[in-house]
C-alpha cells in the first residue's frame, strides 16, 4: 500500500503563495489550537481528491482562494497538489487548479478530464463518491445513526463492491433456479422410490393370492398341480 508523501498548496484558503507540507511518513498526526488551520489541511486534501465544493464549507469554488473570504482574493487562481508514493517507490501526482469558477484537473502534471482523474484516484484506492479515505467532523456520529440498510450501502460504496451488484443479482437468480431444479428432481426421485416400494409390497401381497386361486382352479378341474411350481410371476 502506498502513502501520501507531499502536499503542495498555492493561494489556497489560509495559505498565501506557494507552500509545501511534508514530506509525510506513513503515519502522521497534526495538532494545534483552534483556528490554526487543521481543518484547512483536511479541506485541501478533500479538494485535490475531487470533493465537491459544497462539502468544503464554502458556497463557491472562488471562496477557496486566499483572501476571498474577506473580499480581497490574493490571486485569480489557487491550486492543491499531492505527491503519492506507491509501494514500489513510483510517484504519482494529482493536482486541482481553480481558474475563475471552474476547476482543472492534472494527473502527473498533464491535464485530464474529471472522469479520468477520478479513475486514477480509484486505482490507488480513493473512491470520491464513497469518501472512503476521509473522516469529516460529525461523520462518525452520522454513520452510527444510519439504518442498517443505509450502512450496508455505505460499506458497499467504500469497498467498491456495489460495482458487482448487477452481476451478483444475476448469479443469485441462477443459483436460486438451480436450487429449485435440484429440489424438483430430488422430490421426483423420492416419489418414484416410494411408488416402487408400494409396487413391490403390492406384488408380494398379490402373488400368493393368485397362486392359491390357480391351485384351487386346477384342482377343481382335476389338473395335477405341483403347489411349489404352480405359478411364476415376475
Fill in the keyword field for this structure:
single chain; 234 residues; alpha+beta; 6-stranded antiparallel sheet; 5 helices; 6 strands; 41% helix; 17% strand; rod-shaped
Oligomer: single chain
Q: Give the strand line-up of the largest sheet.
A: 2-1-3-4-5-6
The percentage helix is 40-55%
Globally, the shape reads rod-shaped
Mind explaining what this structure looks like?
By secondary structure, the protein is an alpha+beta fold. 41% of the residues lie in helices and 17% in strands. It contains five helices and six strands; from the N terminus they run E-E-H-E-E-E-E-H-H-H-H. A six-stranded antiparallel beta sheet has the order 2-1-3-4-5-6, with helices on one face. Strand 3 and strand 4 form a beta hairpin. It is rod-shaped, with a radius of gyration of 39 Å. The two termini are 76 Å apart. The model has no long low-confidence stretch (mean pLDDT 81). Its main location: nucleus. InterPro entries: P-loop_NTPase, RecF/RecN/SMC_N, Smc1_ABC. Belongs to the SMC family. SMC1 subfamily.
Give the SSE map:
Blueprint: E1 3-10, E2 18-21, H1 38-48, E3 77-85, E4 91-99, E5 102-107, E6 110-112, H2 114-123, H3 139-145, H4 148-159, H5 165-220
Antiparallel strand pairs: 1-2, 1-3, 3-4, 4-5, 5-6
GO biological process, one term: sister chromatid cohesion
Domain RecF/RecN/SMC N-terminal: 4-126
Pfam families: SMC_N
In short, what is this structure?
This protein is α+β, with helices and mostly antiparallel strands and about 230 residues long. It has five helices and six strands; from the N terminus they run E-E-H-E-E-E-E-H-H-H-H.
